[in-house]
Amino acid sequence: MDTPHRFDPAGGCPHAANARLLTRGAVAPVMLPGELEGMAVLGHAALKEFLTHPGVAKNARHFAALRDGRIPEGWPLATFATVQGMTAADGADHRRLRSLVSSAFTARRMEELRPGIEKLTSCLLDGLARAAEAEGGVADLRRHFAMPLPMGVISELLGVDARYRDRLHQLSSQVVATDITPERAVAANRELVAVLGEIAAAKAERPGDDLTSALIAAHDEDGDRLSRPELMGTLVLMIVAGHETTLNLITNAVRALCGHRDQLDHVRAGEASWGEVVEETLRWDAPVSFFPFRYPVRDLTVDGTLIPAGTPVLAGYSAAGRDPAAYGPDAGRFDVTRPARPDAVRSLSLGHGAHYCLGAPLARLEATIALERLFTRFPGLELAVPEASLARHASFVGNSVRTLPVRLVG
User: Helix, strand or coil for residue 272?
Assistant: First the structure.
């Protein structure tokens, strides 16, 4: 077997390493933090097969190292394995947990949310302009626009008061970080659960027309339908996944368009839509790079590579999106006019199969509105620093940059 690819806990741009790994094959051995051996599925076709394979589970009882007591407290990826929510459940448990929140993400509900998203977008653009004026013409688009938009939307769905939102974002960032110390990881997870517990307690006393109140009611009516750990795990997942993915998506799309002005011209000429910008960004610079975890329940061969039972496997979304076998020799080129692909090679960056991202329609809606309104109001918007100087996420799970300084040019 090849020497395992050693993930840098500090993150960094994944694409050069992904390209090298793909030349070796669609599945690669990897070394996770703590010298734990794992695997990553990188090729598009192999990943699509793996995500729906009946011999692959999400429940951490199949995680051999965890089961054997070899995962220490504070391991930076522990939350992905141990959170008691739909992303770590299989079969009937997964369907039960997913059904409790699915009504908040229907197509009808998305259209009902649209006016509120448009209004919030306009307000945030006003705030972005004020920030730029106060900061010498340059503002951090990620801080003032790309983050508060999805955080505001998911908070409204959950009924989370505005005073909690900045802290929830800070804690979410620590939960998905891969360079965090064990002590900080434990503290961040405990505080996140404590903050969400405070929110849940307030909702239990004064229920509202929101998802948190509905989940509490489901727990109170039938603890077998939703246990207390599952309630808290679901809230953790809703907050973290409900804004981090869309935050990265908007940030990456703005970076891509600023670095490829010809592609922005295609949109303005009517040769591509803002929706197609979102789809190409999802493919070309996936907001989640390597998502933990899935576990073969028995020894499994994927694209000619053996993955032993109980191995923690990461879904290599950022690699699959630029797989030449799926997208041709120009897979590394950002092209909003790229011909539509059949379902067989559609982007996997928001998942596939039973665990397909429940919030995918909401993420697409938010990003499409955000990009259209942003570049309509500031058509000459540009990066205020060279792309290469942007500090990356301290994570090989999330894929984006920490800040996005821009000049707002009308």
Answer: coil
Q: Are 247 and 403 in contact (CB under 8 A)?
A: no
CATH number at residue 161: 1.10.630.10
SS3 state at 202: helix
Q: Are 105 and 212 in contact (CB under 8 A)?
A: no
How many angstroms separate the Cα of 115 from the Cα of each of 110, 146, 366?
10, 18, 11
Residue 302, SS3?
Answer: strand
pLDDT digits (tens, 9 = 90+) for 283-307: 999 999 999 999 999 999 999 999 9
- What is the model's pLDDT at position 149? 98
Nearest to 80 by CA among 145, 171, 177, 10: 177
Tell me the C-alpha distance between 353 and 361, whole Å.
15
Domain count, the chain: 1
Q: Rounded to whole angstroms, what are the CA distances from 296 to 23, 92, 269, 403?
A: 24, 18, 48, 37
Interatomic CA distance for residues 278 and 235, integer angstroms: 27
| Cβ contact 336:62 at 8 Å | no
pTM metric for this prediction: 0.96
Domain assignment of residue 390, given as a range: 5-407
19 token code pair = 């390209």
Phi-psi region of 136 (alpha: psi -120 to 50; beta: other; left: phi over 0): left
pLDDT at 323: 97
Q: In the predicted model, what is the mean pLDDT of the chain?
A: 95
Question: Could you tell me if 196 and 235 are in contact, meaning their C-beta atoms sit under 8 angstroms apart?
Answer: yes
The SS3 assignment for 384 reads coil
Three-class secondary structure of residue 130 per DSSP: helix
Q: Is the pLDDT of residue 9 over 60?
A: yes
For 150-206, write each residue's pLDDT tens digit.
Answer: 999 999 999 999 999 999 999 999 999 999 999 999 999 999 999 999 999 999 999
The C-alpha atoms of residue 193 and residue 121 are separated, in whole angstroms, by: 29
Task: Show the beta-strand stretches assigned E in 15-154.
Answer: 27-32, 36-41, 56-57, 138-140
pLDDT of residue 343 exceeding 90: no
For residue 245, which of 100, 95, 84, 362 has the smallest C-alpha distance? 362
Element holding 7 (H helix, E strand): none
Q: Residues of 366-377 as b/e, b for ≥16 C-beta within 10 angstroms?
A: bbbbbbbbbbeb
